[in-house]
Amino acid sequence: NDSTSVYPSVNEPKNNLPQASVNSSNNNHETAQVTAAGACSSPKEQLPVQEAPSTPSATTGTTADSKVETDGTGGRHYSYNPPTGSTVWPAKSAEPQGLPRSHILEKAGIVNKTKISDNGKRLRKSWSPSWTVLHGGILTFHKDPKSTPAGNKSTQIIPEYTVELRGATINWATKDKSSKKNVLELKTRHGSEYLMQYDTISIITDWVLRFWLSHVTSALAQFLQLCDTLCTTLCTTLCADGRHSTPVSSTESEQGRVRNKLRRFLQRRPTLQSVKERGYIQGKNVFGCPLENLCTRERSTVPSFVDKCIKSVEKRGLDIDGIYRVSGNLAVIQKLRYKVDHEENLDLDDGQWEEIHVITGALKLFFRELPEPLFPFSHFNKFIALQFTSLVWLLVRSLPQPNYDTMKVLFGHLHKVIQFGEKNRMSAQSVAIVFGPTLLRPEVESANITMYMIFQTQIVEFMLKETDKIFQA
């Protein structure tokens, strides 16, 4: 089969993205299957048809000169002529009256990927960069154009793997799966496994968030479809029993008005950020809250969550191998985060938080999600200029009180960690590599990111070795 795929730019308006799939045969041009989703707003619009290699599910009827395809999942009828490649849309009356399916491009970008299992059969790892697209609950990995044979060079991007996320699970990959950093393990319900990796932790973490949002959006769409089906069934039953005197056409018109009102309401709803700015929702989250606001709300200079995590880790033992370097279970860490944001009385001695790497992972996540890092943006260049000098302690003393007190507690704790270096194999340099990019970063990323990473590690390592002098009373 000769299948190609052309995807629109990420910057194109998302509400205009159609989706279609074509599967044609070189030997028989009279046989073709085409499926178009109901993303087109009008049959008169001239929108591009997006092709994908997946096999469509459609009921095909044949006319004299063309194929008439019906999308059984809420699509539209249209005619497709294989020899000429022309597509003809019928009158608007053929368009279904149900709620349209959402075909918004949720995320796209370059990640490193490899497939390690195919329906339970283990495969050899072969890492390669891939343009990856999350769209309508489907994750598509595209082939690297550099891997295309010299004679088949094309400007089109060809899909390599298509993964349905329904029923799939995603977690941080263990060290036995890959020695690379920031690796996600994606398992499908059919037994296939994929690894996704990117060097920047914020980018790979955003993929995790997008997977979760895609799952929620899919569940919401199924719920709305179920409500629509129940409403139609109820109206039909009432009319059949003679309990409703309204003609069927009037009932259908009323259903259409209800759907349109619901659609306009969902499209008109404000964003979470705008609601917070108007004061309707008071943000009381711990994660992602500015350090000064959090300390003011708690009437302290050190966040209580930071204090609880440090005490819990020191209570369980600082001699655990790879402490702060080994990642905890991502799902449990996110569960702990939810508890912290929604419950005032958090007990870290609870059995569900018994793994110490979950506590250390949540503590790192807290500092990573601060809108402004523990080392403020305004002091970034100053710390770089004064590193390895005796003036660092003066710069530390000039920090806002919440930053200074939190930094003092954190570095005092990490200093204890490196004192157990022979047992936990965490030297000052190892701890600095873990915490450097989290605690110290520029406000605007530049082309000197590699040099900045060196400075981040060196500054944190120097402060760990000189903790007693820098934070002395």
Automatic annotation (TrEMBL):
Stretches assigned to the Rho-GAP domain: 289-471
An example molecular function term from Gene Ontology annotations: GTPase activator activity
Superkingdom of the source species: Eukaryota
Pfam families for this protein: PH, RhoGAP
SMART domains referenced in this protein's UniProt entry, alphabetically: PH, RhoGAP
One GO CC annotation: cytoplasm
Protein name as annotated: Rho GTPase activating protein 27, like
PANTHER family xrefs: RHO GTPASE-ACTIVATING PROTEIN 27, RHO/RAC/CDC GTPASE-ACTIVATING PROTEIN
Keywords: GTPase activation
Region Disordered, residue ranges: 1-84
Ranges where the PH domain occurs: 115-221
Bias kind Low complexity: ranges: 52-64
A Gene Ontology BP annotation from the UniProt entry: signal transduction
Compositionally biased residues, Polar residues: 1-34
InterPro entries reported for this sequence: PH-like_dom_sf (IPR011993), PH_domain (IPR001849), Rho-GAP (IPR050729), Rho_GTPase_activation_prot (IPR008936), RhoGAP_dom (IPR000198)
